[in-house]
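Hi support team,

I submitted a single chain yesterday and got back a structure, but I'm not sure I'm reading the token output correctly. Could someone confirm the output below corresponds to the sequence I sent? I've pasted both exactly as they appear in my results page.

Thanks,
R.
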Amino acid sequence: MLPFEDLTSRIISAAFRVHNTIGPGHLEHVYRNALALVLRQEGLDVQIEVVLPVLWGEVRVGRCEADLIVEKIVVVETKTGIGILAGHEVRLGAYLRSSDHEIGLLLNFGPVRVEVKRVVETRMGRKTG
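Hi R., thanks for writing in. Yes, this is the structure output for that exact sequence:
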């Protein structure tokens, strides 16, 4: 069993409901906001557009912005392209490292269906599934 599988399954289920309800073709922020709304209606804590510092040692050298953080556990990135690209996964890994979170979801609200990729970033390295 993957860490936090129950929570990530709830998020994925909500993503499918959002896509089935509003359909394909919208901009990324529409799906992000709808997903946040659905998850909040389910009683989950959801933060939108969370700014994460990028550190070099203890010095802040920049920032990145996660689309959603759910229950202060799962970092969620929403996309609307043809598919999930390797660069999307790399960026989510960077967000996880910057925030000290271990679990991330890439959700692509593509033209036909929702595509999902789970990313687990631990001190031992990255795992995807």
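A quick pointer for reading it: The longest strand covers residues 59-70. Let us know if anything else looks off.

Best,
Support desk
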